[in-house]
Design brief:
Length: 381
């Protein structure tokens, strides 16, 4: 096997057969040749993170003390709030969650694999999902300032939709996961019902709607969740740096979702001033034709839980979306009336109305344009 020749990888832009149709590979896929077959056969959803490396706690502490890194909980001042997200359950469709991490023990209600069963392969072997879970609900047993989850009173339900090294999956698996959420809520007590959904996957292309064979199904499921007062939060995409693609990556522009881009939370950031990160995608079209909303949240160099039991640093619109999911959990606790959740429309309206309007100064297409940044303190007033 060691001497077996690798099959040649098709060059970027080359057309490949898919049944009776031809599918043109996007140019950027050349950076990830190991998933070409997966892309051809399933329309890849993609969160481009390799397995994260452990980060030394002392280095994290030093970076925070020097002001080189501002944790989302510090930037948004959520730790000082009386709201902690209690009563919310966040379903995360991702690589799984390592619930034996000290910060996540007792925070995960259940783990389900992408086929919808409680048994089988449900563990996180990659790290992406565990990192996001820590951002949302991590208990911070380390005691280091800044490693707290945004909504420590909320709980997680993990739906594993991928087993791949680069955390890619097929859209139909995400659709299966959304169906599982709707089914799950019909069969559990009110306190265990899923109240928020996080999808931290994107297609390569910001115009992938026609290529995604599951688009209609995904749209209908998201609309159903919207009607059930369950916000669906989606990462906006990380493709700007390599591919110079503005516009939200699919499925962040599907109607009714809350699309999230990553703002910088390193040394130059403050509560009232921040840039977009160099990699995040944003809106360049007139968003009035879309029924979604787009805001930014901290997503640069974020320290959170790792599958080794320690902590690691990742950045991306995935991390920003996890921050937003935590903020929405705070809002649900604040505006819930008894067992009745606030509508998704109310959540979206308050997020937009109470957002900070900031001016981006990065040298890119959005230079000089304003963008909205979540203001966690304002939205729970």
């Amino acid at each position: 096997m060691a001497n077996q020749k690798k099959k040649p990888v098709k060059s970027a832009g080359e057309k490949v057969n898919q049944g009776t149709e031809e599918l043109k590979l996007p140019d950027e896929i050349k950076f990830y040749p190991d998933i070409i077959d997966f892309y051809k056969n399933g329309q890849t959803a993609f969160a481009p993170h390799p397995i994260p490396l452990e980060k030394d706690l002392e280095k994290i502490k030093e970076a925070i003390e020097k002001g080189e890194y501002i944790a989302p909980v510090s930037l948004l001042e959520t730790k000082k709030m009386k709201w902690d997200g209690s009563g919310s359950v966040i379903a995360i469709l991702d690589t799984g969650v390592f619930d034996m991490h000290d910060d996540l023990k007792g925070q995960v209600l259940s783990k389900i694999n992408y086929m919808g069963h409680e048994i089988g392969d449900v563990d996180d072997m990659q790290g992406h999902g565990t990192h996001l879970a820590g951002i949302m609900v991590g208990k911070n047993k380390s005691g280091i300032r800044g490693l707290n989850g945004i909504a420590q009173g909320a709980k997680i339900l993990s739906i594993k939709v991928t087993q791949k090294k680069y955390s890619n999956t097929a859209w139909y698996k995400i659709a299966d996961g959304l169906e599982r959420i709707i089914e799950y809520n019909l069969n559990v007590k009110t306190k265990q019902k899923i109240t928020i959904v996080l999808i931290a996957f994107n297609a390569f292309d910001n115009v992938d709607t026609d290529m995604c064979t599951c688009h209609h199904r995904l749209s209908m499921l998201i609309e159903k969740l919207y009607e059930d007062k369950i916000p669906v939060i989606v990462s906006g995409g990380n493709s700007y740096l390599k591919f110079k693609k503005e516009g939200l990556a699919y499925p962040a522009h599907i109607d009714h979702v809350i699309a999230v881009g990553a703002s910088d939370n390193t040394k130059t950031s403050t509560i009232t001033s921040s840039n977009l990160t160099y990699f995040t995608q944003g809106i360049t079209h007139n968003n009035s034709t879309f029924k979604n909303i787009f805001l930014c949240a901290p997503g640069a160099k974020t320290n959170s839980c790792s599958i080794s039991g320690g902590y690691t640093e990742l950045q991306g619109s995935s991390q920003a979306a996890a921050v937003m999911a935590g903020v929405v959990a705070l809002m649900q606790q604040r505006f819930r009336i008894g067992a009745v959740l606030p509508t998704v429309q109310l959540i979206q309206d308050k997020l937009m109305q109470k957002a900070d309007v900031k001016r981006n100064n990065l040298a890119r297409h959005l230079t000089g344009k304003n963008f909205r940044h979540v203001n966690a303190k304002n939205v729970v007033r």
